[in-house]
């Protein structure tokens, strides 16, 4: 999880530039990215990518819609200081929530793939697919429900496409295998279900 492949391809370079390139590549040319940019045993870039997306998302929400996170029934205000609480929320997101959520989701996804796809890629590749599929959600914090809805739906679509490409299976099998993880990540984690309900309402 903490090692880098020395010759990354299609956006998988080190540092901020590599993350930015991966973000653009997976949004614009996802099939090419999932074909060339996911390497066996090279989870670190994907983990870093997912953490950056989650931090941007949470920071954006705290900036423009703090009430969605700083609900005292969920996150108590520490020392009557919303600022300190916000910093702590971002740190917990980066250090605990995003990495744990990514690997828990990937574990669930792996089990579902075992039930639906006979010849499949490894766990590492699955972690990377889930991580890179979150790319659109770097913009899901924008206070426009339609934009947030598109971001989460696009992310779910990227997850399905990534599963189909990386595990070399049909879109139908990828949909069956990816439906629950997509709901967990994009419907609940990035609040897609609530956003979609708002748009429909």
UniProtKB/TrEMBL annotation:
Superkingdom in the source lineage: Archaea
Q: InterPro entries this protein is in?
A: Yip1_dom
Q: Where is the Yip1 domain?
A: 25-187
Q: Which UniProt keywords apply?
A: Membrane, Transmembrane, Transmembrane helix
Membrane topology per record: Multi-pass membrane protein
- Compartments where found: Membrane
Key word Transmembrane helix present:
yes
Q: Name one GO cellular component term.
A: membrane
Among its keywords, does the record have Membrane?
yes
**Per UniProt, what is one Pfam family of this protein?**
Yip1
Annotated membrane-spanning segments are 46-64, 84-117, 138-165, 171-197
Name assigned to this protein: Yip1 domain-containing protein
What is the organism field in this record? Halonotius roseus
State the taxonomy lineage. Archaea, Methanobacteriati, Methanobacteriota, Stenosarchaea group, Halobacteria
């Amino acid at each position: 999880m903490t090692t880098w492949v020395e010759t990354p391809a299609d956006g998988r370079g080190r540092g901020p530039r590599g993350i930015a390139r991966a973000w653009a590549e997976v949004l614009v040319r996802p099939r090419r990215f999932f074909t060339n940019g996911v390497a066996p045993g090279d989870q670190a870039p994907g983990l870093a990518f997912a953490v950056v997306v989650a931090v941007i998302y949470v920071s954006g929400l705290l900036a423009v819609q703090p009430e969605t996170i700083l609900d005292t029934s969920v996150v108590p205000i520490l020392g009557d200081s919303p600022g300190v609480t916000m910093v702590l929320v971002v740190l917990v997101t980066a250090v605990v929530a995003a990495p744990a959520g990514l690997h828990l989701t990937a574990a669930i996804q792996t089990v579902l793939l075992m039930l639906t796809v006979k010849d499949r890629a490894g766990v590492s590749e699955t972690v990377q697919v889930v991580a890179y599929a979150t790319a659109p959600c770097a913009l899901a914090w924008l206070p426009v429900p339609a934009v947030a809805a598109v971001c989460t739906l696009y992310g779910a679509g990227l997850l399905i496409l990534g599963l189909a490409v990386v595990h070399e299976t049909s879109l139908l099998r990828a949909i069956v295998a990816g439906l629950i993880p997509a709901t967990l990540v994009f419907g609940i984690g990035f609040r897609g279900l609530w956003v979609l309900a708002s748009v429909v309402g």
